[in-house]
């Protein structure tokens, strides 16, 4: 994990601390990535993380879920900290932004069904 401090983001800070995390996916002379989907550029460590997950699967088979779920919980806790949520329980990972919006709508309908007062 990187520490970018509590100050405002600047172009220099991004170039020094964030841009190097994506060096494999940055085309020379093309620092802007405007693809309109939820994946974005893969960080350089993606290949290492995926290989670690596969290694756990080969090594531990069904028990690999312990490692995978632990990683998910760390992600939830860090994301909660990043966005100022009260805790990891406030973060619900989904496949993408569209799936998340759909989930919110379904939950609202379940909690407030039409015609029920």
Largest sheet: none
* SSE run: HHHH
- Supply the helix-strand structural class: mainly alpha
> What is the overall number of helices?
4
Q: Could you report the average pLDDT, rounded to the nearest whole number?
A: 82
Q: Proportion of β residues?
A: under 5%
The stretches of 5 or more residues where confidence is low (pLDDT under 50) are none
Roughly how many Å is the radius of gyration? 19 Å
Percent helix, as a range, is 40-55%
Label the overall shape: extended
- DSSP strand tally: 0
What is the distance, rounded to the nearest whole angstrom, between the alpha carbons of the first and last residues?
48 Å
3D structure, described in words:
By secondary structure, the chain is mainly alpha-helical. It has 4 helices and no strands. It has helices at residues 11-18, 46-60, 64-83, 97-111. Helix 2 (46-60) packs antiparallel against helix 3 (64-83). It is extended and about 55 Å long. The model has no long low-confidence stretch (mean pLDDT 82).
Summarize the structure.
The protein is mainly α.
Q: What topology emerges from the helices and strands here?
A:
Elements (H helix, E strand, L loop, with lengths): L10 H8 L27 H15 L3 H20 L13 H15 L6
Keywords:
single chain, 117 residues, mainly alpha, extended
């Amino acid at each position: 994990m990187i520490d970018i401090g509590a100050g405002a983001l600047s172009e220099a800070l991004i170039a020094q601390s964030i841009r190097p995390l994506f060096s494999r996916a940055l085309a020379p002379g093309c620092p802007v990535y405007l693809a309109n989907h939820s994946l974005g550029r893969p960080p350089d460590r993606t290949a290492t993380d995926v290989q670690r997950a596969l290694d756990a699967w080969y090594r531990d088979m069904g028990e690999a879920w312990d490692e995978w779920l632990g990683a998910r919980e760390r992600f939830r806790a860090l994301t909660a900290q990043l966005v100022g949520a009260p805790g990891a329980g406030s973060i619900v990972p989904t496949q993408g932004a569209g799936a998340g919006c759909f989930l919110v709508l379904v939950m609202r309908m379940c909690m407030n069904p039409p015609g029920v007062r």
